[in-house]
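Note to self: keep these together.
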Amino acid sequence: MGAMAAIKNKFEVLNAADVLHRTQYKKTRKRLQALKIHLLSYEEMLDDYLMLNAGIKNSFVFLTSLSAEKNSVFEDDPQASILLLSIIADVSRSRMLADASFLEGIESKALPLGRLKELNKAQASFVRSFLVHLHFIASNYPQFIKTLSEIEHSDIEKGLEAAEEAFLNDAKTDFAFLERVFFILLLLLLTAIVMISILLIRMGVENRRLRTLKMQLRHSLSHDLLTGLYSRKQFEEVQGTFEQPTLILININHFKHVNDFYGSAVGNAILTEMALLIRQPILEAYSPEYFRLGGDDFGVVIHAVEAERAMQLATTLKKTIESYIFVVDEIDIYITVSAVINRHVPLLENADLLLKQAKGRYRDTIAVYSDHLELKENARMNIDVTREVKEALESKGIIAWFQPIVDLQSGKTVKFEALARMKTADGTVKGPAQFLSVAKKTPYYYRITRMMIQHVFEAMQDTSYYFSVNIGMRDLEDEKLMDVLRETLTQNSHFAHRLEIELLESEELDDLRLVRTLIEELKALGCTIAIDDFGSGYSNFSYIMNLNADVLKIDGSLISTMLENEISYQTVKTIADFAKNMGLAVVGEFVATKETAAALKKMGICCGQGYYFAKPSERLSEPDITP
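Structure:
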């Protein structure tokens, strides 16, 4: 019964496997269905065997016990006693040899016992019991022997093994990666205690290895592999345990340039040395914790420090780093950093927001986070604007408005500047100040520029006007945008001479040589180049000479104040004189009054643009201005 239970258990485990419902295990399912029928038949044989075994065993025991009793019962009938002894002997031989042939004709042999007359009560009872048991044995023992033989020679285990083998074969095609593991596990179920012991030993070794790996993994999750400092993940996990924390967040300015110019190996060396450099003894009194929070972002968390002292410590860190000479392969490298201080929860989120703002506004100082800065509100507004830009691009809501550029001598319109506007879902038209600065930081900016170029060439189809369109200096470094410009100018070569590309001079360049090469390429395709917002920040005359532009557009901040501010006036005059000497045309922007237009005309500036002449409009309309 124990063997049968083991076989049934194996069958049920195999038959209950969830994977059998999958198509790949069709053959295995058929084998198991056949095996199930075989198993039920085998179980029925076992039940028959157990039932017969109990009765036959009882009858054999009874007949054997009568061999001693017969002498006393039939002591006065030797012939009956001899007959009984002969029958009992045949029964015993049949039992010992498990051979039913000894029982053939045994009931006929016992017939004389039934014919005995004048039996006393004990003899009659003896004969009745003897014949009943003999009949039971003679009737059932052959079937018992047959059933026992079938049980002994049953191939149920082979059938189970065949089903297991079919299952493994199916699993090989479906679970290639898990085949070896599954096979080992199956063997473990079928192997002896020795194999289990071997597996346990191997498991012990593997567990020790896994524990080691787990410790290494835990360390790698909590520490930065390059610098050995705590990681950003570790910061996020432990920030709730900080007591009166102040976070000093430090970012290396233009670290991408360092990587690009010197190579990542030098960049990694600088990051490694930075990790040592921020560990200043002056911080030790405030239980400092050091983190690498991003590619070139480092964080120092100090505890229970006053705001004024935190500023002193951050200033010391900044000065120490910026005065340090990083020597890599005998090359001296200097870096600058931006640093911010935050004492408000959430520490890192607030510091990150402030750092993005500080990179543009407070590069030479250390910014301190305050709720009054409304950085989170600005971030949410940026998300809303980005969503509006995306929707406008999808609904063709990026449109062009046009503002005339007027010849100050004749009063005639010489060209129109295409200015981006965004029409929202409710029909509101928004100016560039409301979305363009945010769009420049998203992947959608390229699509806006491309759409504006399309609008300009569409406008050229129906008019003879000249047009200009704004493109950032950094846009020239965008290969996708340059491909669009080349394709558009090539396909519309007969219009190219009427297009002026205005490059925003207020944007800092990474590669002046590359930009100059691209400008020459655009000019070769037929268009002219203007430098927009000249005088807004990065201006120098050598820089403009290197770009080989055709037109200078003086920044509106100078034009709008030139009549009240002598410095602005002289700056505009100097730019105008320089441009005339270099053979460049000059356009004054933000011309809001007749007096400003007259002053520009007197300086010899050829063209003006601004509300005095006309506001930007959806339509191409020339202003009626008397020069």
